[in-house]
Specification:
The complex is a heterotrimer of chains A (about 650), B (about 300) and C (about 290).
Chain A lengths: L1 H4 L8 H17 L4 H16 L6 H19 L11 H21 L5 H17 L3 H22 L4 H25 L26 E2 L12 E7 L10 E7 L1 E2 L3 E3 L18 E9 L6 E2 L1 E2 L10 E2 L5 E2 L8 E9 L2 E3 L4 H6 L9 H13 L3 H14 L3 E2 L11 H9 L1 E2 L1 H14 L4 E8 L5 E2 L2 E5 L3 E9 L2 E5 L7 E2 L4 H9 L1 H22 L3 H13 L1 H26 L6 H15 L10 H11 L4 H14 L6 H15 L1
Parallel strand pairs in A: 13-14, 13-20
Antiparallel strand pairs in A: 1-5, 2-6, 2-17, 3-8, 3-15, 4-5, 6-11, 7-10, 9-10, 12-19, 15-18, 16-17, 18-19
Chain B lengths: L9 H8 L6 H12 L4 E4 L6 H12 L3 E5 L6 H5 E6 L4 E6 L6 E5 L6 H13 L1 E4 L2 E4 L5 E6 L12 H4 L4 E3 L6 H9 L15 H13 L4 H16 L9 H17 L7 H12 L12 H11 L5
Parallel strand pairs in B: 1-8, 1-9, 2-5, 5-8
Antiparallel strand pairs in B: 3-4, 6-7
Chain C lengths: L1 H11 L1 E5 L1 H20 L2 H26 L1 E5 L5 E2 L4 E9 L5 E7 L4 E7 L3 E9 L5 E5 L2 E5 L6 E7 L3 E6 L7 H8 L9 E6 L9 E2 H6 L3 E5 L8 E4 L7 H18 L3 E5 L2 E4 L5 H10 L1
Parallel strand pairs in C: 3-11, 15-16
Antiparallel strand pairs in C: 1-10, 2-4, 4-7, 5-6, 5-9, 8-11, 9-10, 12-14, 13-14, 16-17
The chains are: A alpha+beta (about 650), B alpha/beta (about 300), C alpha+beta (about 290).
Amino acid sequence: MTYFKSFQPTKFSPLALLDMAYIVILLPLLLMLKIPMLVFVFMVLTILFFKKTPAKNTLIMFVFIMGILALYLSLYGTFSFRGLSRLKLFLELLVYILIIVVSMQRLTRVINIYLLISPMLFLALSLFFYYGMYMLIYVVFEIFFLLWMILAHHMEGDVWEGFRSGMVMFMVSLPWVVVLFIFFPRISFEHASYGFKGENIQRMGHDGTMHLDSKALLVPSNRIVMEVGFDKDIPSSDLLYFRGSMLYIDKIDHWEPLPSYIKRENKMYYPTEGTNVDYKVTLYPTQKQWIYLLDMPSMTVRKSSLDRDLISTLEKPIKEPLHYAASSSLSLRFHDVLDSYTLQMSSAFSKEQNPLTYKEAQKLKTAYLSIEKRAKAIVTFFQDQSLTYSLKPEPLDINHSTDSFLFDTHQGYCVHFASSFVTMARMAGIPSRIVTGYKADLENSMKNYLAVKEKDAHAWAELYINEHWVRFETTATASSIEAQSQIQQLKESESQLSKSINLYLMYAKYQVETWILYYSNIRQLQLLQYAKENPKFIVTFVMSILALILFSFLVIAHFRRPKYSSETLKLLQPLLSALKKEGYLRKKEETLHQYFLRYLNDHPDKTAIKEVDRCYEQILYAGDDSKETKKELKLFIRKSLT
Amino acid sequence: MNYKIAPEFIPVIDAIETHLVGKRETIALSLATFFAGGHLLLEDIPGVGKTTLAKHLSQILGLDFGRIQFTSDMLPSDILGVNYYNQKEGSFIFKKGPVFTSFLLADEINRSMPKTQSALLQAMEEGIINIDTKAYTLSRPFFVMATQNPHEEVGTFPLPSSQLDRFMCSFGIGYPDKASEREILKGLTQDTSSTTAPLFSITEIESYLQKAAKVTLSETLLDFLQDIITFTRESGLFEYGLSTRGALALTAMTKSWAMLQGRSYATADDLQMVTGIVCAHRLHFKEGHTTVLRIQHEIFTQIHSDT
Amino acid sequence: MKSLLKFIQIHRSIKQHATRFSLVVVILLFGLFMEAYMHDFNLVYITLFFVFSLAFSSGPIGVLNIGNLEADFLRKIRLFAHQEGKIPISITNNSKTTSWSVSLHNDDTILPLAKLEGESSKILHFPVTPDKRGKFTYGNFYFESKYPLSTAHLSKNIAQRYEGFVYPEPKGKSLAAFLQEEEMPYGEEKEFDGLRAYDGSQRLSHIHWASVAKGEMAVKIFTQETHTPKLAFDFHHAGSNDEARLSQLCLWVLECEKKHLPFSIQMPGKKLNSSKESIDDILQILSTY
């Protein structure tokens, strides 16, 4: 705290304090202003910067006209009376009008009540436009900042004192806010979702087709696709397959799903095998329609449709973060009765394209009558091919991709494995298809939280065996995994620490989002339910609230503590209050030395106080700032207290 | 008040006290004024020992003693000296006045005309006197102890405040306490006419003067000092506040008082001790009488210090 | 527990009133509530709860800010009718923390106190213009503050009242004019004692014309003057009515005090003497006549 001592009291005029409040409050709103309005704001700022005297009426009139012009240009086209019924447009209009009015008032340099309350209005309006983790942090900061400025205004513009008092008030209200937030009764309305601008993603790990050539889906990006919170523990890593899309048609250089005009028999067989898990997903904007569910989805997610391949899609591409609760049966397989069309599409292959593979497939087909055994034989065949899993394989002969992969290059990654496996299975007479999606990595998980990244994009095969679709992890047939280039490995080992920090941050962010930003009536009920079931939880909860109050109290005590003109005087405080308790009140005109002498007069045996007096004199007047004297002073203060 | 005079000065005070019984503090403060390089104005009724104090102080310090009894018909030349024409040599010769001494007792200074008063006060301030375009330097050290009777109103010329400012301190001696007075009445004290042997050499005096000037004032004390100065100017209690010269006098006295206690640094106690006597003749309460004690009380009950 | 009791005690001594900012807070709370409830905006909820709890906590903080202040009238001052006088009030902050943004009020005057650090005191000079002489009490003082958020007006009454006297307005002829008129014998001119500067109060016959010719205005003074008989003022000759007489006497008393001149006043029925009564006592008698 000695650092702060070097601060001279910094005093600001009320207008300067108000300006600072406006700057902080308007910052997020500037991001949503249309260009003409931005130009207007810039113009007003320039005038304010150069003009230090109250503006004349003509200038204010000019600013008013410019403001109206900017407003007209900003809303040109979107503006109609019908459009006003759209809340967002209406709010935008409000913001613009408020900016113009505030600018005009500010130019007069007269602070009136409207100028004083407008920052709060701007804050309330900006809440309509932004929603998210960063806004949460910023809003809390804004509230503190406004409080700080108001207090500094009451403290003659002394910002440092304002900060101290601001901290005290903030900490007094923090526990209230937390308690109110948790217990305030909510109703289960939908989260409104206007205004949020999602990122524009061009390339995704999963995009509904699967290329085998250089366009192949290899996006080793660390961007988070989705975050999953499991209600209980995270399942083991071999069960974390998130289905994306289902590909049937081999287009030589890529695979495609079934065309949308095809109407298949709409019959659903919900999976029943395997253990059931419930989880909640936050899916970030993908600009695609798919939502990802764990194999095998056991129910339809709200607002989405689940087709008979257990692929879940929305009507519109996802442009803002999507939250959904889902439930799946963790299983390799699910029961399905194939209609003729699906059977046809999942059995199609071209003999000419991959003659070598066809030959091998025919061999297996004749050797094994049982489909099950035949499938196993294909796996064994793949394993015998000494295939290498490599993220940088040699290019395949794209016209004979399976042959090229199995008998020539022997190198590839998930898409090549899946594509070749499905091709061979079909040739061997087993209906099969490719599933693309994500296979989550447990490295990106913490407790019940799991982050799925772009680089987790994956492709695998499903074979139709005994009226069941069965998942085959095709890459598992690789006999060796080629090490990625050495430099990359080095990089990874270096960033091991930052990686784990990153994971922690992600986890924290996820927790904040689930428990603060998306806290709702349901969560509230869940919490209550949980508390009912676990009396222990109530204790923990109360304890943490108490801990929060204690923390607030400590911060308050820290910022409310009186300031002393010197460190020495601060050291003396315990002794002084002890003497006060003994009934020795320091008279107004008494110096400390006289005060001590008066005390010593009545208590001549207290030699320690005599020494304190001597040390104090040495430090305060003789300019002795050596550590020994200070230590001595501390020692004698302690002695005099006992 | 709490102070402890350093051993080397105790004999001085003891020696003078034999002539001025029960006035140790007054003696010590006079000594401090001398070592602070200032001049002293004693304001008291006649017969309390002003002259005795001056006489013995000068003797103890081993300084030349000069005395001027001010009267209303006195002229500046009676103090400073005159140029007179020496017919034998055919030139003007300067005859030094009584001011050319080291220790000057200016008795009843308020009985002379302002012109005469200011001649002395100018000499006090500058240490130099100008007569007929020629400058004469006064001896060093030069110490003036002036006395005046405050209760005599008519036929006196009260010193204007600009002149008063030139005195570093002003205080009275006061009646002796009962015990001391009894001693005096018994005739146990020494005869006032007896002389005292000097206790200091001139080099020693010089070194004490320098020592007093070198006493350090800590930042905390300077803050306190400035608070006092601001208070005299802004509290509205006084007709006008302490001048910069007054403030300098306050610092010099504080230092000197610290030196008298054998310290090389000054404390808030030193400052408290001397504030009243430095300010009493410089400040005037808007209402009622100005006394050393009242000034002391008003200032130190109203300034909140961290000392 | 002890501090809680003390807080309750302080709290009782303070009155709180709403300000227009209280209304702003209420409207804001309502608006935020609507915004939050309609759309289940947790951010808005958080803002709402912050605004609510800050407004709520500003109460006790404001109370602590103002509640530990004590006022005391330092001393009696000389007040004169129809003249502005400044009553010194010592304000003490008994808490350890600084009090901010407090002002001292009376029925018609406001005096800003601004900042008062913990365990310190400050002296304010409260201006007052009494309209008539006599016994004077002045009260109804209170502290007021809008700290911390301007959402409430806190005021704390000061029980102490200033009690003193208002002296008659000093008005009338100056002492010099009185002396001129009365031709008061300034002693006997027996032994020439010297010269002094002319200040308007001396008789014309005493002017030392030789010095006037040199450009200095001096008067002769004589040793006998030291035995000047005391100035004697007479109530009945001081003016045309009682008020004018009192004002006149008051003026003379003050002038005499300044010049350290002893005087006496012949009041109806009693005689006041400056060597027996203090100036303040004499003024008080004039005040309550």
